[in-house]
Amino acid sequence: MKEFEFRLEPLLNLRKQEEKNIQKELMKLRKNYNELQEQLEEYKSDKGNWQQKLAQEQEKGINSTTLVKYHNYIEYLNEQIKETKLEMDYWREKIEECQDRLLAKVKERKKLSKLKERQAEEHWEKFLQEERKQTDEVATNNYNHNQDNSSGSII
């Protein structure tokens, strides 16, 4: 009996490669998202520090020009925080889309893998069945041969 060959092996390999590619894409998207998250934390921390400095300066007494500069910079940080959050929302959506595509590819690959396993098992069962059949034939031929020889020697 010939060796098992899965006819859809090229398709299975393609699905595996597509899955790997999507995983790489997902890693890049998460990296972008994490970088934005770090940037957001820096902006928030920076804003808190500047607000604290402003409060300290106000206790000492601050001129209006410096006060405006502090408020303008804090407002700039607020805008950066808003923009970063919007960017994070965009990347989060891209991540979710990529995860959905990955899940679909994983399901496709698993279906093909299960089909391959099932066909390999069927192939193995057929092989065992043929082996048993051949063994039975040999045993039957030996038995018949022995019967023929034993009945001929009695006469």
In short, what is this structure?
It is found in: Cell membrane. The chain has 155 residues and is mainly α. 92% of the residues lie in helices and 0% in strands.
How does this model look, in words?
The protein is an all-alpha fold. It has a domain of 102 residues. The protein is built from two helices and no strands. It is rod-shaped, with a radius of gyration of 37 Å. The relative contact order is 0.11.
Total number of β-strand segments? 0
Task: Outline the low-pLDDT stretches.
Answer: none
Mean pLDDT: 92
Count of discrete alpha- or pi-helical segments spanning 4 or more residues: 2
Q: Proportion of β residues?
A: under 5%
Shape: rod-shaped
CA radius of gyration is 37 Å
Order of helices and strands: HH
- Report how far the terminal alpha carbons are from each other: 43 Å
Largest sheet: none
List key phrases describing it.
mainly alpha; 92% helix
What topology emerges from the helices and strands here?
Elements (H helix, E strand, L loop, with lengths): L8 H52 L3 H91 L1
Helix pairs in contact: 1-2
